[in-house]
Amino acid sequence: MADFRDRSAMLLEELLDSGFRVEDAERLRDLLTVGCRNSAIEELKEKRESLLRSLHEKESSIDCIDSVLYKIRRGEL
User: Fold this and answer.
1) Origin, by domain of life (predicted)?
2) How many separate domains does the chain show?
């Protein structure tokens, strides 16, 4: 029983560290506990895609800042 609690706690910690809200992390844990692996996998894939979209948006913002810095340094702005 202790092993299950340890794994459950580690799973929650990883999900929280990856950006899940507490209630969503607990729901995923519960899905896995009752054997709904496919549902848990789908939710994880959706979260991953969302994070990846956010990352790409941030990369675009960084590219714009880099462009402004470049132009300032060249005296164009």
Assistant:
1) Bacteria
2) 1
If one counts every other C-beta atom within 10 angstroms of the C-beta of residue 31, the result is: 17
From 52, 50, 5, 43, select the one nearest 24 (Cα to Cα). Answer: 43
Provide the residue range defining the domain that includes 33: 2-73
For helices 22-33 and 37-73, angle between their N-to-C axes, nearest 10 degrees: 140
Q: Confirm if 44 and 28 have CB atoms less than 8 A apart.
A: yes
Q: Is the pTM of this model over 0.90?
A: no
Distance of alpha carbon 21 from alpha carbon 51, whole angstroms: 13
